[in-house]
Amino acid sequence: SQISFFRNGVCQGVAFTDLNGGRYYPAASMYTLPNQPNCVVRFNFGPDFDCFPQDFGGCPVPSPMIDAPYHGFDGEATENGENAAENGQSENKT
After folding, report:
1. d(Cα 93, Cα 71) in Å, to the nearest integer?
2. What's a single GO CC term here (predicted)?
3. In 1-94, at which residue ranges do the beta strands (DSSP E only) sit?
4. Residue 50 lies in a domain
5. Lowest mean pLDDT: which of 1-5, 60-64, 65-69, 79-83?
6. Which of 23, 37, 51, 71 could form a disulfide linkage to 9, CB 3.0–4.6 angstroms apart?
7. Could you say which DSSP state residue 47 is in?
8. Non-local CB neighbours of 19 within 8 Å, separated by 6+ positions
9. Rounded to whole angstroms, how far apart are CA atoms 74 and 38?
10. In a domain, 35, yes or no
């Protein structure tokens, strides 16, 4: 197992290998000094990619995030988001 990063459809290389099983979610962390301009990051999870990666090194082509089912705070998949956590908090319905 591995995670690779792409920029404008060009692979920037393998960043992590031999990963633990489970799900990994994309994220970004940015930091600037007070005298520097703001940071900007943009994710494009599809389905309309500006620069679709062409070479996956024999790995299956990933599906757009929009096709992934939503998993609420309790980990159960939902179709309508009824178990969705809002602002990192979920109501216990027991």
Report:
1. 16
2. Set1C/COMPASS complex
3. 2-7, 10-17, 70-71, 77-78
4. yes
5. 79-83
6. 51
7. S
8. 1, 2, 3
9. 35
10. yes
- Tell me the backbone φ, ψ of residue 66, rounded to 5 degrees: -65, -20
Peptide bond into 64 cis (omega under 30): no
Question: Tokens 């404008």 belong to which residue?
Answer: 8
Specify if 78 maps to a domain.
no
Whether the CB-CB separation of 42 and 53 falls below 8 Å is answered with no
Q: List, in sequence order, every residue forming a beta bridge with 6; answer none if it has no partner.
A: 11
Domain containing 24 equals 1-66
**DSSP assignment letter at 58:** T
Q: Cβ contacts of residue 3 below 8 Å, gap of 6+? A: 14, 15, 16, 19, 24
The total of structural domains in the chain comes to: 1
Residue 83 or residue 44, greater confidence: 44
Rounded CA-CA distance 57/81 in Å is 35
